[in-house]
Amino acid sequence: MSKSPATRAVARRERPLSPHLSIYRPPITMTMSIIHRITGGALYFGTLLVAAWLIAAASSQAAFDRVDWAFGSWLGRLVLFGYTWALMHHMLGGLRHLVWDTGAGLEKHTASKIAWATLAGSIVLTLLIWIAGYMARGGLA
């Protein structure tokens, strides 16, 4: 550090702190972008589950019964529910980006509304898919 009185006075002044996560609230568009990337990664794992199900169905009745048992357990259903939500959220996020690629919806207020709609839409679609699945199996009759 310099010995000059001018630079010492500047060094003593309060310097602004960079925003920290404890005081900075990320905008919804940033949060949805991060979640879009996470759901994209989760879809890789979920696609392995779909492949395991198809391979078991093509292999033998015993292999299919094992996979069906695993997917039918509470943990398996929770994973499949999460996979469904990730699929719906990633799809709607992709549509959001497709709209943005046209130049529409880029205003801050509109982009935030679309981001919230993506989250709400993914939850609603996931619930509708699972309700339809249970009704098709006669589970809610």
Automatic annotation (TrEMBL):
Its cofactor is heme. The chain crosses the membrane at residues 42-62, 74-93, 114-136. The keyword Manganese does not apply. It holds the Pfam family Sdh_cyt. Its main location: membrane. CDD domains: SQR_TypeC_SdhC (cd03499). It is found in: Membrane. It is a multi-pass membrane protein. Membrane-anchoring subunit of succinate dehydrogenase (SDH). Part of an enzyme complex containing four subunits: a flavoprotein, an iron-sulfur protein, plus two membrane-anchoring proteins, SdhC and SdhD. The complex can form homotrimers. Belongs to the cytochrome b560 family. This is Succinate dehydrogenase cytochrome b556 subunit. The lineage of its organism: Bacteria, Pseudomonadati, Pseudomonadota, Alphaproteobacteria, Hyphomicrobiales.
